[in-house]
């Protein structure tokens, strides 16, 4: 389920693109899956259809989505490979554990960055 953070200061189209990236990274949307129409996504997210389309176009430009006439918008082959954040986080946790840091230590360090 896609959702936007109303406290986020990023533009809404970037949040839309980020929500879809996250869904792909977490396996909610797999390569070949068809996304709901922009109009439906806009209603679900509480934003305009143009905002959703702008986010979808950004993902198309990144190679994560494909626009096909008559087929709608689908997740591109290899899109799940493009999102490396989960594997980077696992590696970070392994590196931190090797250095003697706990998960809570990492969380506190990340909080200190913002």
TrEMBL record:
InterPro entries: Tscrpt_reg_HTH_GntR (IPR000524), WH-like_DNA-bd_sf (IPR036388), WH_DNA-bd_sf (IPR036390). GO terms for molecular function: DNA binding; DNA-binding transcription factor activity. Coiled coil: none annotated. Signal peptide: none annotated. Keywords: DNA-binding, Transcription, Transcription regulation. It holds the Pfam family GntR. Residues 10-78 form the HTH gntR-type domain. SMART domains: HTH_GNTR. PANTHER family: GNTR-FAMILY TRANSCRIPTIONAL REGULATOR, HTH-TYPE TRANSCRIPTIONAL REPRESSOR YTRA. This is GntR family transcriptional regulator. It comes from Streptomyces roseus. The lineage of its organism: Bacteria, Bacillati, Actinomycetota, Actinomycetes, Kitasatosporales.
């Amino acid at each position: 389920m896609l959702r936007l953070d109303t406290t986020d200061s990023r533009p809404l189209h970037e949040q839309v693109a980020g929500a879809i990236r996250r869904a792909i990274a977490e396996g909610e949307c797999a390569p070949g899956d068809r996304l709901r129409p922009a109009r439906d996504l806009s209603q679900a997210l509480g934003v305009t259809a143009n905002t959703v389309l702008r986010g979808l176009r950004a993902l198309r430009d990144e190679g994560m989505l494909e626009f096909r006439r008559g087929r709608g918008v689908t997740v591109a082959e290899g899109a799940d490979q493009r999102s490396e954040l989960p594997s980077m986080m696992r590696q970070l946790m392994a590196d931190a554990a090797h250095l003697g840091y706990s998960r809570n230590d990492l969380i506190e360090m990340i909080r200190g960055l913002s």
